[in-house]
Design goal:
By secondary structure, the protein is an all-beta fold. Helix content is 2%, strand content 25%. The strands form 5 sheets. Strands 9-16-10-13-14-15-17 form a 7-stranded antiparallel β-sheet, with no helix packed on it. The chain has a 4-stranded antiparallel β-sheet with strand order 7-6-5-8, with no helix packed on it. A hairpin with an 8-residue loop joins β5 and β6. The longest helix is centred in the C-terminal third of the chain and has 6 residues.
């Protein structure tokens, strides 16, 4: 079992005005399991994170960097000059005491937020809007970043970590820098109890079940699945079956599909 202790983490209670109850009913419907492998978990409180950061041209000072049990990235508590406070996604290198700003043409410094048309090509960006005014929708998990390839007429080309190249309206906002806590995927859970506290129930292999319970079940000893392609417990194709809609609305925004 291992624990990652990120740098610049502040030891303080979450801001009460930005926290609300979080009633989870994961995995069950009317008391019956409807989604496998989910349920239970330690009680959490939800931190209201501002993905829009629409307080434009108002400088804000970072009060603290905190862990959020509801996401892999760290969050930063920002106090603005007008007296308001909000949580935002913390970028790598962000620390308490620094000033940040969200503006149409903000300085290109880690943590600042600006429009894609005013960010130089080759810059690492995160918390990217897909449509103007909607708030950051992609590149929000720990350690993730996208690269701004360039701006052509009304659209900007953004290369995602998967290798996919998307075109996004140049009026959309993005934060400068990589999302914090890039070591998130290197820690080891170590024991079953820790996994349960995270809200994950046990997962059993289909080949370890009986034929009545799973298409992969049955056989003597450690046998293979006995099928040409793996299947879900309900007989549908699994592991590699493409599920993306053929005529999805966002197809026209993808210049290059992700790497296989």
């Amino acid at each position: 079992m291992s624990i990652v202790k990120p740098e610049n983490l502040t030891d303080r209670e979450p801001e009460k005005s930005l926290v609300c109850g979080f009633n989870r009913k994961t995995g069950r419907s009317l008391g019956k399991i409807s989604v496998r492998h989910k349920g239970g978990g330690s009680r959490r409180r939800y931190r209201m994170v501002d993905f829009k950061q629409d307080k434009l041209n108002i400088p804000g000072k970072i009060i603290s960097i905190e862990k959020d049990p509801n996401r892999s990235a760290l969050i930063a508590l920002v106090a603005y000059k007008d007296g308001a406070k909000s949580y935002i996604l913390a970028t790598e290198g962000m620390k308490a005491g620094r000033e940040i700003i969200a503006a149409e043409n903000a300085p290109i410094k880690r943590g600042n937020r600006a429009k894609l048309k005013n960010i130089p090509s080759g810059t690492l960006i995160s918390n990217v809007e897909l449509f103007p005014g909607r708030g950051g929708q992609i590149v929000r998990s720990a350690g993730s970043s996208a690269t701004l390839m360039g701006v052509d007429e009304n659209m900007a080309q953004v290369k995602l970590a998967s290798g996919e190249v998307r075109i996004i309206n140049k009026e959309c906002f993005a934060s400068v820098g990589q999302v914090s806590n890039f070591e998130h995927n290197s820690f080891l859970i170590g024991k079953a109890g820790r996994s349960r506290r995270m809200g994950r129930r046990p997962a059993v292999r289909g080949s370890a079940m009986n034929p009545v319970d799973h298409p992969h079940g049955g056989g003597e000893g450690r046998m293979g699945i006995g099928l040409k392609h793996p299947k879900t417990p309900w007989g549908k194709p699994a592991l590699g079956k493409k599920t993306r809609k053929k005529f999805k609305y966002s197809n026209k925004f993808i210049l290059k599909r992700r790497n296989k």
